[in-house]
Amino acid sequence: MRKYLWGGILLVVLVLGIAWWRGTGDRESGAAPPPATVASADPIERGRELVTLADCRSCHTARGGAPFAGGREIPTPFGTFYSPNITADARTGLGNWSANDFWHALHNGYSKDGTLLYPTFPYTNYTKISRSDSDAIFAYLRTITPVSQANRPHELAFPYNHRILLVAWRWLFFRPGVYEPQPGKSPEWNRGAYLVQGVGHCSACHESRNALGATRSEAGPSGGLVLNWYAPSLTSPRQAGVENWPVADIISLLKTGRVDTNSTKAAALGPMAEVVSESLQHAPDDELQAMATYLESLPVTHSNDENSESSVKYDIPRSILEAGKDLYTKNCADCHGKQGEGREPAAPPLAGNRAVLMSSAVNPIRMVLFGGYSPGTAGNPRPFGMPPYSLTLSDEQIAEILIYVRRSWGNSARPIRGEEVSSNRGNPLW
């Protein structure tokens, strides 16, 4: 009986695969991208700029490994993926690929030999990249020093280790197509949308996902868990929405990892700090201007993760709040202030801090556990950091501190359980 069941499933997958294959189209060409204000005439230099904007080096370089040689682990709910070698090595990298092969990978999500790629490689975003930009990226990657390093197999749980199931996944969730400029929008806005949605693949982290790992596109960049951190919503004013920010402040955050003005205070931490350090700080100013223009225009929504905290009444025992206050005074107040007012530039304020008050408490938990720094950049060369407390405070003590912080000085956010701290303790890196 089981044999016939699997046979039926495979038949359905095959039929869906044929339907998908016949309907993809657009395999050899692609429309021109919205023009950059200042574009390099040299395709290799333009490719270098695009590879930097896409942050390819970070994902395709293992810690301590050769650049672009792959092997970096990417933890997901489905198992651990390992990025491939994309150097110019003929045997283990892209050395024997053609520009068409590379275009198929970016635009259609399959390898040179026709193998369907898992969407941890964000071809669902990269499909928006134009053919000319794809060719420029490939031309630059061909200049990368070849490194002979075999690709490490993914370590996935059943049934996700059966790649044939991607046929059904793609039929349900993937439609290839280059970015189409929106009429009525400025060239700068369209350029920003092209970079944010395609090259920069911001939604790969900042969109929530369903049980099968597909982004909930109807929700927009509404926030989601990625690499053991929470990537906040880019459309919610209570998370990382920038709709009321001056464009100059958005550019500052993207380029330096920090903004500290009278109207805006924010810093990039966790995986976003790496994105700023390795990618965005090196982007041309006009490209950042375009991205900021687009991000500022995103419609205001509210994340699925977000509750109306201010209207919820929490019955928190006074003993827990007093314990949290005592721990905060001993461990945190010297930097963050007795009233959570902060001591800029060394320590940000905690009173009214959006990063502290989100319904998802993953990021503040991880910051207390493991500490961290905003990125070191040309505009922020000596960033201040926070020490780790994972070795000196228990899970319950960290929970008590965060309960106190999230319920004091006008803050109103849900309490944190010790189990939440414990679940984040075992994976310090992203």
List the SSEs and their pairings:
Elements: H1 2-24, H2 43-54, H3 56-59, E1 73-76, E2 79-82, H4 99-108, H5 123-126, H6 131-141, E3 155-156, H7 166-173, H8 187-199, H9 203-206, E4 224-226, E5 229-231, H10 247-256, E6 258-260, E7 265-267, H11 271-278, H12 285-296, H13 318-331, H14 333-336, H15 354-357, H16 362-370, E8 372-373, E9 385-386, H17 395-406, H18 418-425
Antiparallel strand pairs: 1-2, 2-3, 4-5, 6-7, 8-9
Helix pairs in contact: 1-7, 2-6, 4-6, 8-12, 10-12, 13-17, 16-18, 17-18
Give an overview in words.
It is a single chain. Helix content is 40%, strand content 6%. It is mainly alpha-helical and 430 residues long. It folds into 3 domains: 8-173, no CATH class; 187-296, Cytochrome Bc1 Complex, Chain D, domain 2 (Orthogonal Bundle), CATH 1.10.760; 309-425, Cytochrome Bc1 Complex, Chain D, domain 2 (Orthogonal Bundle), CATH 1.10.760. The strands form 4 sheets. The chain has a 3-stranded antiparallel sheet with strand order 1-2-3, with no helix packed on it. Helix 1 packs across helix 7 and helix 10 (247-256) packs across helix 12. The longest helix has 23 residues, at 2-24. The protein is globular, with a radius of gyration of 23 Å.
